[in-house]
Amino acid sequence: MTQQIFKSNWQTNVRLFLLSQFVTGITSTTVQYAIIWYLTERTESATILSFATLLGMLPMVLLNPFVGPYVDRLNKKSLLIVPDIIAAAFAIILSVTGATLGTFPIWLIFVSLFIRSVAQTFQMPTVQTIIPSITPSGALTKINGQLGIVQSANRIIAPAIGAFLFALLPLHWLLLIDVIGAILGISLLIFVTVSRNITSSHNRQVFADMKLGFSELVNNKGLWIIVLIGAISSLFIMPAASMYPLITTDYFQKTVENAGIVSVVYSVGSLAGGTIISLFGKWSDRMKPFLLSYVVIGVTLAISGFLPPNQKGFIWFVLFSALTGLAVPFFDTLLMAMVQQSYPVNQLGRIVGFTMSLLSLPGPLGLIFAGPIADSIGVEKLFIIAGVGIFFCALVNWLIKPARIYDKQLHQTMEKNNE
Q1: Over the stretch 211-252, which tens digit does the pLDDT of each residue have?
Q2: Residue 343 CA: distances (Å) to CA of 77, 129, 255
Q3: How far are the Cα atoms of 75, 207, 313 from residue 203, in angstroms, in the given order?
Q4: DSSP per-residue letters across 40-51
Q5: What is the DSSP string of 266-320?
Q6: What is residue 224's predicted lDDT score, i.e. its pLDDT?
Q7: Are 240 and 382 in contact (CB under 8 A)?
Q8: What DSSP assignment string belongs to 346-363?
Q9: How far apart are CA 88 and CA 308, in angstroms?
Q10: What's the CA dihedral at 163, 168, 170, 173 to 10 degrees?
Q11: DSSP 3-state helix, strand, coil percentages of the chain (rounded to 5)?
Q12: Gap between the Cα atoms of 225 and 208, Å rounded
């Protein structure tokens, strides 16, 4: 079935899939920004923001290892459609509650964020396993770059739309955009051709698949080290990422609209990074741009924490946010491309599930302490700590030879297999 897709117009199939992800992504991200800005404006608390981000991450950490084997077994299109329906349903519940009470209970917002994260936990590894099943191996890095462009475009457009609508509409109306996006995205996804899952001849149980996925990742020494260091880096980057709205409104004394501008500029940088990857994505050694992205993220975050809390400092913060955004796709996209090319398609679900879980695992630990630390010593100092930590992750990754040369060896293996 996969070969039939490649022999037919696979480019059209991929574009239709990416369009469906763009539509659902932009509406979902718009609502996500609106909720975060509502919490920022109402509470002005780093602890509340870090807890909200924590709730958004916990399902990914706890459920991804379980989700992976199901991605290998179940209908992939259903694994994208059903979570969209559930997220839209909770958007309706939150909207009706806010319209009825005239305010939004914080606990219900937290529940909504948690459910949305559960939905994304099923969708994210599914998207990463669909891409290699509908894309020839030689075009995989570029198509991942195009997926990065879609995700970056969502992050560019969504804050602008969200900031505009947040000032124009009551939140309970804004939430219903998620419902519209789900309807349109599902309608497009119906026409995408995805190969059916190839199941193992053994009727292994899910827990056995989880154990096997973990074992296959750990035994791939170079990739395992790369993923492990990437996981450690999330201990630093996730707390800082959750504080972007608060450093704008609290440290630089700007408005929610200014926070929207920062998000847009960051995402413009991400779009530029994804574009570079999609156009020039055939590097013989992807570890060099991968590690350079670590350095850029670390340096820009650290310098941001030293900026003065005035207009000039804020302008520099916006510029550094663009550079951070530029670097992020090189980390996300190149790492996922290496994972996708390291294993057969029918094994990817369990591998991607564990990889995403490991990358997300330390983030909640950092978030538990991030809010109280930021409230205590200042949110800008949290950026300094994060930047220094990420920079050292890059250094450690470079010093460990199996990780540093992994992509060169992977290319050599793929060339031998194609002979």
Answers
A1: 777 788 888 888 999 999 988 888 888 778 778 878 888 889
A2: 21, 11, 47
A3: 17, 12, 60
A4: HHHH--HHHHHH
A5: HHHHHHHHHHHHHHS---S-THHHHHHHHHHHHHHHHHHHHS-SSHHHHHHHHHH
A6: 92
A7: yes
A8: GGHHHHHHHHHHHHHTHH
A9: 42
A10: -80
A11: 85, 0, 15
A12: 23
The tokens describing 230, both together, are 């990437």
pTM tops 0.70: no
- Burial code of 46-63, b = ≥16 C-beta within 10 A, e = fewer? bebbbbbbbbbbbbbbbb
Angle at the Cα of 212 from the Cα atoms of 211 and 213, rounded to 5 degrees? 90
Tokens 């194609």 — which residue? 418
Token pair for 240: 């800082």
Report how far apart, in Å, the C-alpha atoms of 66 and of each of 53, 130, 395 are: 21, 18, 32
Q: Rounded to an integer, what distance in angstroms lies between the CA atom of residue 70 and that of residue 65? A: 10
User: Are 289 and 330 a contacting pair, CB within 8 Å?
Assistant: yes
CA distance 230 to 362: 10
What pLDDT, in 10s, does the model give residues 333-345?
Answer: 888 888 888 887 7
Quote the distance between the C-alpha of residue 93 and its chain's center: 25
Q: Are 356 and 231 in contact (CB under 8 A)?
A: no
Q: Which tokens hold the place of 272?
A: 């530029």
User: Quick one: 2-194+205-418 is in which CATH superfamily?
Assistant: MFS general substrate transporter like domains (1.20.1250.20)
The whole-angstrom separation of Cα 204 and Cα 213 is 12
> Residue 169, by phi and psi: left (phi above 0), alpha (psi -120 to 50) or beta?
beta
d(CA 189, CA 18): 9
Written as six digits, the tokens of 357 are: 């879980």
Lookup: tokens for 396: 């450690």
Written as one letter, the residue type at 305 is G
